[in-house]
Design goal:
Elements lengths: L4 E4 L5 E8 L3 H27 L4 H20 L7 H16 L28 E8 H31 L9 H9 L5 H18 L4 H4 L5
Antiparallel strand pairs: 1-2, 2-3
């Protein structure tokens, strides 16, 4: 992990992730979610009207159909009315773009040791964003980052061990420059989550009004 914390959420199917993000990310997310939340409220208001005059059994059936319709829109990325949902959608897109959208079941991976990467890598991300994401997605991100970075992490650890043990320190390439060069080969979970946030925001802003919501609009 890159300056990010992970913990179990109240729901066993979710994991809490804290991500360092650029200044203004919270505001951008609020703005990006605005019209999707309006669509959801519009749909729910119309659904409540449709329940009037129905028997309890009919109401239960219609509610189930309505919930399924909204869930289908959410899973397809057409309705991103929750922050975690928007980011999870974007993260999956990022994993797909990187060729990492696959099962990593059975793969052994580990968190990047705190302090291994240069502290400067996190200085440009002053905001902290706490998220609840599907546990399977968090595992997928961690395993993918480890798989793509394992060799670079090994070289970075070895370089640190060699440089620390040397007396006097080796001459040649300036230590900081070499250290940063090796660290650049590591893909962190923070990088994936930030890319996912960008993709999720882009999707939220560009998604056309779902047909289900259009059908509810007054004529």
């Amino acid at each position: 992990m890159e300056y990010d914390d992970v913990g179990e959420g109240e729901d066993s199917g979710e994991t809490r992730v804290t991500v360092r993000v650029p200044l203004g990310t919270r505001l951008a997310l609020t703005s990006g979610l605005e019209r999707h939340r309006a669509w959801a409220q519009q749909s729910k208001a119309q659904h409540r009207k449709q329940l009037k005059g129905l028997t309890p059994s009919q109401q239960n059936t219609l509610r189930a159909e309505q919930r399924q319709a909204l869930d289908d829109l959410r899973s397809g990325g057409s309705l991103l009315d929750k922050r975690g949902l928007l980011i999870a959608f974007g993260v999956r897109q990022e994993l797909q773009a990187q060729g990492w959208d696959r099962s990593w079941t059975g793969m052994e991976w580990e968190e990047i040791t705190p302090g291994l990467l240069p502290a400067a890598m996190g200085n440009s991300y002053p905001e902290s964003l706490s998220l609840s994401l599907p546990a399977t997605l968090v595992e997928q991100v961690g395993a993918a980052c480890w798989s793509s970075s394992r060799e670079s992490i090994g070289r970075l650890r070895q370089w640190r061990a060699d440089y620390t043990a040397a007396a006097p320190p080796p001459r040649g390439t300036p230590p900081e420059a070499e250290y940063k060069r090796l660290a650049a080969g590591v893909t962190t979970t923070g990088q994936v989550y930030r890319a996912g946030i960008r993709r999720g925001l882009q999707a939220a802003l560009q998604t056309p009004t779902p047909l289900l919501v259009k059908a509810l609009a007054p004529h």
